Amino acid sequence: MNRLEKLRPASFGALDPLEPVSALKSRSPILLKATPAWGRTGAGRSWIRSLIASSPVILAPLASISTIITIATFGGSFSDFFSAVKDEGFWTILAKYGPQPTVQAGAAVVIWIGVQAILFRTLPGQTHSGQYTPAGHLLTYKINGLYAWILTHLGYGLLCWFGLLDPAFIALNWSQLIGAMNLAGLIASMFAFAKAHLFPSHPNDRKFSGSVIYDFYMGIELNPRLGANFDFKLFSNGRLGMMAWTLIDVSNLAYQYQTQGYTQLSLVLITFLQTLYVVDFFFNESWYLRTIDIAHDHYGFYLGWGCLCFLPAMYTIQAQYLGLYPTSMQKHHLLFIFSIGLVAYALFRSANHQKDKFRSSAGQCLIWGKPAEYIVAEYKTLDGKQYESLLLCSGWWGWSRHANYVGDLLFSYSTCALVGSTKVIVWTYSIWMTMLLVHRCIRDEKRLSAKYGPAWDEYCRRVPWRFIPGLW
Ligand code: NDP
């Protein structure tokens, strides 16, 4: 079996466009031997550590609702929100200004999930493979997210055009929708937890930490599915979370127009950048199969509730804020920050594309015009089978170990800066992304060290910086 076959089984889906591979020769890759087990650590964590780690199960929904209240009722000022909480008590503020359940919002969320499920299931798409799981499974996925994104936005536009839907519907019913999405995210997480125990899709790819609450939070099943093909993770992360993002921005644009009679450049530019990010995601959806969300994270509250509720609530704060409080910096300041956002996006896309192209071609590609440099790392799955992975050491991946995160972070700070406010709330997205990506980097590197052992050490020796050379 040659290297390409060993890394890429016959069922591997369509490749991205590659440079001609015949003329390429990779530079003397190093082969380093595997360590015995990976992907199943976690058992034995103390109950107190598990409890602290799982605290977002309670805190994150309260944070999402508090943020909505702060924007809608306290002008986006956390200090005003906290003084009100001090004076009246948290639960009083929640009852007074928090989401009130309405049939309309509940129905909207049910229809949203139903329509996305139908598009996910029925639209045509190429079949792509994911990565080998710790138990040795290689799952296939139908990739049709871009069609779904186009149809969803076209459908929203047509409903508004024919007067069947107010384009500002989401902004107008935001608090109630967030309430309903919180509930939907909780139900999805509870269903995933029960399913993992009662009818798991791949029993040997489950991870039990020894703590029920931690299992609920981080998930038990790696790739829960309904039937053979309805993949929870691809559906909820991509279709429910990312798909909603652009609709929420557009709805806030419409709301600003309806209430002010104009749309400000700041909100237009933010919507443009975030649409670029979301469309990029769906355009490159097969790439997503090789990211941590799909390849390594288990499906529980963190991903289930996170994608259904946290992502729509927190990633759109800039648009929510500007929809209610239109502000705009001078045009040249806005354009300067916007161009930083574009550069950040280019770095994010280029780094992700390099890794994807490199992995899809089993290392037989050009990186920055030169044959890819890499380390061959061996690892074993639970069934005892040995595999090889390639670690790219040139291009962005030779500059730092997470250049894609640097691009993403810079992008998030640019979109927050475009709001033109020093209020902490408008920076929430970038603060969150900093915490998420730093934590993710540390957690992923721990896992990769266990998976590849000396090969990972060698990569860290060759590429010593995590984010920015000289800094960290
Ligand atoms: P990566 O795409 O960087 O994937 C990490 C995996 O890539 C590792 O686990 C490892 O997997 C493999 N890998 C690591 N180093 C190398 C190398 N040198 N050569 C080849 N493969 C390597 O991370 P994420 O999945 O976290 O993120 C993907 C993108 O999504 C990023 O740009 C990130 O910024 C963005 N993102 C955005 C979020 C948001 O909420 N907006 C949330 C999370 C991510 P293996 O086990 O296969 O070796």
From TrEMBL:
Q: Which UniProt keywords apply?
A: Cholesterol biosynthesis, Cholesterol metabolism, Endoplasmic reticulum, Lipid biosynthesis, Lipid metabolism, Membrane, NADP, Oxidoreductase, Steroid biosynthesis, Steroid metabolism, Sterol biosynthesis, Sterol metabolism, Transmembrane, Transmembrane helix
- Annotated coiled-coil segments of the chain: none
Species name for this entry? Answer: Coniella lustricola
- Family to which the UniProt record says this protein belongs: Belongs to the ERG4/ERG24 family.
State if Membrane is listed as a keyword: yes
Which enzyme type, at the first EC level?
oxidoreductase
Enzyme Commission no: 1.3.1.21
* Record membrane topology: Multi-pass membrane protein
Its taxonomic placement starts with: Eukaryota, Fungi, Dikarya, Ascomycota, Pezizomycotina
Location of this chain's protein in the cell: Endoplasmic reticulum membrane
Q: Where are the transmembrane segments?
A: 57-82, 144-165, 177-198, 265-283, 303-322, 334-351, 410-438
Q: Name one GO cellular component term.
A: endoplasmic reticulum membrane
Q: What is this protein called?
A: 7-dehydrocholesterol reductase
- Give the molecular function GO annotations: 7-dehydrocholesterol reductase activity
Q: Which GO terms describe its biological process?
A: brassinosteroid biosynthetic process; cholesterol biosynthetic process
> Do the record's keywords include Endoplasmic reticulum?
yes
InterPro entries named among the record's database cross-references = ERG24_DHCR-like, Sterol_reductase_CS
